[in-house]
Amino acid sequence: MSTDYYSGGGGGGGFLSTQNSPGGSQSGSPGGRMRSDASSALRPMKIAQLLKCVHAPDNEWRLDDVIIGNVTVVALVLDISKSATNTSYSIEDGSGTFEVRHWSEGGEEDEAKWGGVEKLMYVRVTGQLKAFGNKTYMNTNMPLHPILDYHEIIFHDLECISAYLHSVNGPPPVDGTPFTTPNAATAGAVSGESKSKSMSTAKWGKRPPLQLNILQYLSNHDDENGQAVGDIAVNVGESLSDPAVASRVSAALDALMDDGLIFTTTDDSTFKLA
């Protein structure tokens, strides 16, 4: 299945940063850098999730306190309204309806680029949330991508589920090994380890699993110079090659720094427990 709809901007996978680290550019403050990377990552979403996004005071869009940057939606076009300056699409995906807009440049080139979309056609839309007055809509600079294979609709729904569960529950086990009940010989050791971990995480309060995993790793590896962001990500089961994952790691580190639980050491991509 083609995934050309993820390409664009400065890098593959819809991730607009050209840096390998979720920290992105080495200039500026760590918090500002990470917010920038989070806002440029691409996340698959259902319209019901778009409707729950909140426009935060920092001018970022958030869902469950996670920064939402570029989003991609697969939906049915219900209506198309054209004017001299823009085209508005009403789309629906079974979970809600939403408005998508793109600003027209006019001329044959613009028509060739944006034409071909009709009512009752499934399309993929990629863009950013915007607000005007009390109305929220998606602004897109990328042509709507007609869905030619029904499996892409199912694929998108599964991606939305995966991205959401990953954001609220953290990553699956690194080696993919399912949990098994310990036998009598190992039950005591496992119980002691779990008790120790529970005691150490209790002092950090109620936090998302990813933040707790980062804090636990830094607590267990309290080196003088701290830990590089790449090592942190790998050891908490994250892959920075995935832009959505890089966004979650950036947001988690950013939140922990804002709360004074971690700080940077030798550079903006190395962190240590406060």
UniProtKB/TrEMBL annotation:
Location (main, coarse): nucleus
Molecular function via GO: single-stranded DNA binding
Start and end residues of each Replication protein A C-terminal domain: 180-268
InterPro entries attached to this UniProt entry: NA-bd_OB-fold (IPR012340), RFA2-like (IPR040260), RPA_C (IPR014892), WH-like_DNA-bd_sf (IPR036388)
Subcellular location: Nucleus
Domain of life: Eukaryota
Entry's family note: Belongs to the replication factor A protein 2 family.
Identification of the protein by name: Nucleic acid-binding protein
Species, as recorded: Cylindrobasidium torrendii FP15055 ss-10
